[in-house]
Inverse folding.
């Protein structure tokens, strides 16, 4: 008996070894290309800044202190880094609003697609993915052309005589949000559709049969059942939105910094690489917390249905 | 095992490609984008049978960071004068001694012995210009020769002013506007600077680089800008004029140097000498639209550059220009803090 068990065990361990070997290239790439640079960023955040960029090989906590505290430029008092905090808050706020707006727009869209006959669904999904064919920068500039002072909308309004002077749309918060929602909408629609496709519409019918109002059906049946899709879509939109800076700076005019700009400043003209590194790690930690909340939510969801 | 060796060799090769030996007759220039005349490069290639490759960068800090890492593969770089002492002190330049080259006699007197490179041991002038203002005079008829356009914006221009987001340029302008000296560490002045900037910002519509296009399309009616850029805007719309701020403005220059780890040193030296020839410098100015510091190059520039108000500094404003220079790290830190506060 020991013989047979031993052979099976040996077979199994051989199999496991083979799998490890096969996944070795991927693991190496992850290790070298992702973890390595990240560790360097982490290390740099604990060093002192060099006089003209780069770092000095002397341990220092200045970078991390600088993330949260600032010495007043003029009276040397130490206080909470209000500039950094307001930039953080702006990025988080913008990402939250973007997530909510994409959800509001994406939910009916996904519902519409999921309720089409099976044959045409493919086509609708295909249409949703069209924006992915073009580079983000080009899509953003396309919006800019539409809303600028001598752009499509203002041109049409002036030609039809509705307005005399162009309306300032470019370089406003509305312009930023329009751009962000447009760019991130597919990331919301696709996971929403994936869970709605699995939705058993007989349950919806049953709800109506029991005289539930449409709103009640939505709230009590549809939303609870597609919740995993809502969460996945929200995470997929929220995280990249947090680090976004191309869209806000092109459509918003770059007057107000986003987290991405603040980090870039430290590595460029600000010449404070440790602070930039510490800010990057802080951003990653925020994303990680958001992901943990997601995993927990999704986990409890799974067990309830499981 | 053999397979693993192959993979490792391939990986090593991947990392080494940038360091591979280059064939003879090549030159790799690392320069600002949209800044090198293709016609002039063609002339150099034909004359010396050298294949030139140009790679762009968008800021002095980017160029410095990349070259500092080593193994960049570039032979030449064109940093601004305020960065050149940093490059020299970090030992990144090769001492090619352009001051002893054949064409050096063509370099204009005032550029022969600059403070940033005494005796021209490393660099050759490429282009020089001014940070000032551009205004669409159809929109605003008042005095444009003042930083007040940006910092105390007239009513006609409110909500139509752009500021090019070069941190040092913007803060220097505000320092000069408040009667301070460039790179000042004087906190009383810097406090005024901060207040000036914070108070001025609500009148700005954007902080962007793309002034040539957006001044032309009417998205901006005024901006802080460089004179060469202003020149190109005036060619597109004659109402756009360049202002020389009477409170003072910064004169800058970009200069061509050879890197210490250059692979094509001889070709790079040939190119430095080539750039001091008035015919070539003039041809290059015809492209980037800045002055070039080479005496006698004017006659090789396009006719529209002769007497151009952006290039020939009016006598009344010549004295208020101050040279661009490296600010000490502690001042740079103050500048960064003000800049962050401005954009929070």
């Amino acid at each position: 008996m020991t013989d047979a068990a031993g052979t099976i065990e040996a077979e199994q361990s051989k199999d496991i070894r083979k799998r490890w070997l096969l996944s070795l290239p991927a693991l190496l790439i992850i290790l070298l290309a992702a973890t390595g640079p990240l560790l360097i960023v982490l290390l740099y955040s604990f060093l002192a800044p060099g006089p003209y960029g780069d770092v000095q090989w002397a341990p220092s906590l200045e970078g991390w202190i600088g993330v949260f505290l600032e010495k007043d430029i003029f009276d040397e008092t130490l206080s909470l880094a209000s500039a950094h905090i307001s930039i953080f808050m702006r990025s988080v706020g913008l990402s939250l609003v973007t997530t909510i707006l994409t959800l509001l727009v994406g939910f009916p869209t996904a519902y519409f697609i999921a309720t089409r006959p099976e044959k045409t669904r493919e086509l609708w999904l295909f249409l949703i993915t069209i924006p992915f064919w073009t580079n983000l920068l080009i899509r953003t500039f396309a919006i800019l052309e539409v809303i600028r002072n001598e752009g499509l909308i203002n041109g049409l309004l002036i030609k039809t005589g509705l307005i005399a002077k162009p309306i300032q749309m470019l370089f406003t918060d509305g312009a930023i949000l329009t751009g962000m929602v447009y760019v991130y909408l597919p990331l919301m629609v696709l996971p929403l559709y994936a869970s709605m496709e699995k939705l058993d519409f007989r349950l919806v019918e049953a709800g109506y049969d029991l005289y539930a109002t449409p709103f009640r059906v939505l709230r009590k049946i549809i939303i609870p059942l597609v919740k995993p899709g809502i969460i996945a879509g929200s995470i997929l939109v929220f995280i990249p939105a947090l680090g976004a800076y191309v869209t806000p700076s092109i459509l918003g005019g770059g007057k107000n910094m986003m987290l991405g700009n603040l980090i870039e400043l430290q590595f460029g003209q600000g010449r404070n690489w440790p602070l930039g590194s510490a800010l990057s790690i802080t951003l990653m930690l925020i994303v990680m917390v958001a992901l943990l909340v997601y995993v927990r939510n999704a986990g409890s969801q799974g067990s309830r249905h499981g | 095992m053999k397979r693993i060796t192959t993979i490792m060799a391939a990986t090593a090769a991947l990392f080494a490609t940038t360091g591979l030996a280059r064939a003879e007759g090549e030159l790799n220039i690392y320069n600002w984008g949209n800044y090198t005349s293709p016609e002039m490069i063609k002339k150099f290639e034909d004359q010396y049978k050298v294949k030139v490759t140009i790679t762009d960068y968008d800021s002095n800090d980017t160029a410095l960071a990349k070259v500092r890492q080593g193994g960049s593969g570039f032979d030449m770089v064109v940093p601004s004068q305020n960065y050149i002492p940093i490059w020299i002190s970090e030992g990144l330049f090769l001492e090619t001694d352009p001051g002893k080259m054949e064409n050096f006699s063509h370099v204009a007197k005032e550029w022969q012995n600059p403070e940033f490179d005494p005796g021209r041991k490393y660099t050759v002038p490429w282009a020089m210009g001014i940070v000032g203002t551009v205004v669409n005079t159809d929109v605003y008829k008042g005095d444009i020769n003042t930083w007040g356009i940006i910092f105390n914006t007239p009513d006609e221009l409110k909500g139509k002013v752009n500021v090019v987001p070069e941190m040092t340029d913007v803060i220097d302008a505000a320092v000069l506007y408040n009667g301070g000296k460039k790179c000042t560490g004087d906190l009383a002045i810097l406090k005024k600077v901060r207040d000036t900037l914070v108070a001025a910002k609500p009148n700005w519509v954007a902080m962007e680089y793309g002034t040539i296009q957006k001044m032309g399309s009417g998205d901006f009616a005024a901006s802080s800008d460089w004179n060469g850029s202003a020149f190109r805007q005036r060619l597109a719309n004659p109402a756009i004029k360049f202002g020389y701020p009477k409170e003072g403005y910064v004169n800058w220059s970009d200069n061509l140097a050879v890197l210490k780890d250059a692979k094509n040193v001889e070709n790079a030296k040939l190119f430095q000498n080539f750039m001091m020839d008035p015919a070539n410098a003039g041809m290059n100015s015809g492209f980037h639209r800045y002055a070039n510091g080479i005496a006698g190059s004017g006659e090789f520039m396009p006719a529209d550059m002769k007497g151009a108000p952006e290039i020939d500094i009016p006598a009344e404003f010549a004295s208020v220009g101050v040279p661009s220079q490296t600010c000490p790290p502690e001042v740079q830190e103050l500048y960064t803090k003000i800049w962050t506060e401005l954009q929070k």
Notes: Residues 99 and 292 of chain B are 16 Å apart (CA to CA). Residues 129-251+315-342 of chain B form a domain with the D-Maltodextrin-Binding Protein; domain 2 fold (CATH 3.40.190.10). The first helix of chain B runs from residue 2 to 16. Residues 1-6, 11-23 of chain B have pLDDT under 50 and may be disordered.
